[in-house]
Amino acid sequence: MRYRVLIAVVGSLVTLATVAKAQQVGALLTGYEESPSVSTTATGAFSATIAEDGDVIQYTETFSGLQAPITQSHIHIAQAGVNGSVVIFLCQTAANPDPTGLAPHCPQEGAVSGTITAANVIAGATASQQLQAGDLAAVVTAIRAGMAYANVHTTLSPGGEIRGQIRVIAK
User: Fold this and answer.
1) Which residues pair with 25 in a beta bridge?
2) How confident is residue 171, by pLDDT bands cut at 50, 70 and 90?
3) Residues of 106-132 as b/e, b for ≥16 C-beta within 10 angstroms?
4) Cα–Cα distances in angstroms (integers) from residue 150 to residues 7, 20, 30, 117, in the given order
5) Percent of the chain with pLDDT over 70
């Protein structure tokens, strides 16, 4: 009986350790984070959990108050205040489809959720960034380093209406 309890406790600790190693990241999205900044009352939030092995990201993005119809939302790779390559579509529209076809449809307001794997990663358009299609490890490394941002684009602000630098959330 004592061994069964010990095995159950050890098994529970291993399970907790696995869950504890998943990493939470997030960003608050505003027009002032855009480069150049955008005068808008729109706001948003991006939250995600990166699996322990970095092979899967579960995310939710919410936004409201956009000044014009949404065209798309992405994760870009770049430091704060700098525009960088799109590497993952968070949502797509008919006018701006995700090249992988995997991103959910963008609502005009509310929440969009999804699962990101290597299949969601597109090659970065800026050659000097050396971002390859399918390289989720490079994207996860950039996110963990604070060098990625979530961006919501609209017809009035094609470069992005709201944006937020993605940061690791301390536990």
Assistant:
1) 48, 168
2) low
3) beeeeebebebeeebbbbbeeeebebe
4) 43, 24, 10, 17
5) 88
Residue 171, judged by CB atoms within 10 A of its CB (0-12, 13-18, 19+), counts as exposed
Residue listed under structure tokens 């000097």: 128
pLDDT, tens digit, 9 for 90 and up, residues 65-82: 999 999 999 999 999 999
Query: Which pair of tokens denotes residue 11?
Result: 């098994």
Sign of the four-CA dihedral 80, 85, 89, 94:
positive
Greatest pairwise CA separation for the chain in angstroms: 68
Q: Which domains are delineated in the chain?
A: 22-168 (2.60.40)
pTM of the predicted model as reported, rounded to 2 decimal places: 0.86
Distance CA 20, CA 11 (A): 14
Tell me the C-alpha distance between 153 and 47, whole Å: 18
Average pLDDT in the 36-44 region?
97
Note the pLDDT of residue 18: 45
3-state DSSP: the chain helix, strand, coil percent, rounded to 5? Answer: 20, 35, 40
